[in-house]
Amino acid sequence: MQFSDPLLKGTLVRRYKRFLADVVLENGEQITAHCANSGSMLGLKEPGSEVWVSPAHNPERKLKYTWELIRVGGGLVGINTAHPNKIVQEAIESKRITSLLGYQSLRKEVKYGKASRIDILLESPEQPSCYIEVKNVTLRRNHLAEFPDSITSRGTKHLGELTDQVMAGNRAVMFYLVQREDCRSFAVAGDIDAAYAKALADAMKAGVEVLCYQCKLTPKNIVLDIPIPLNIVLLNRPGTHGIRPRKATSTVSGRRFITWSPVCSQRENWMALKL
Q: What's the CATH number of domain 84-273, 3.40.1350.60, 2.40.440.10, 3.30.70.3280, 3.30.470.20?
């Protein structure tokens, strides 16, 4: 995904009221930018951080800029939740996601479920339709990309609707797009939203597939890069949330990753899922 105009570099003053961010541009002008991210943005709103904003072209728009990127450590993080669908769509159309090949048509924002719209619907006459829900991931803790960064009842609802599609004989995919380059694997932030963690476990047990890819980011574009391992174990044990992190060694694109997990008893029926 190419940015339509060169981004403007600045310094973050503050993010507030969820959707607003004050930024001082390099020319010294202080502007208020739209923050297209309703999450908590943990670790991504430190005053003084280097940020990039895009100019708006609509003359009637109240806020003339949109916050796009922030530098965290040595890398960039994309905070605009309006971009992931387009990034994934471009990757599917350019045949970069091998597990999503073989479909004849791609439609966006198709109505389904209970007054919902699926982000991407892949269809072919000779096979079941594929319903893809895309989530933007920016939270990083202990080298893990994690979702969600705040309680998301909407996200929990989407998992239930994906499960319904599997039960109806279709294919359903939960696609986590990590808009950063510094994560070794993906995990569910069950400490932030236990209901979402349980809903994901239930969905996976029902047959909903999970994919997770990270991005390459520059002030010129954001493109899908490589898959990262899923750091997830499903437990069929009463009284658990259904998901735990696991300890394992994974290799992606020649890189060896070690992730964390508890010891499972012999009576725990668990399944580790890898990309």
A: 3.40.1350.60
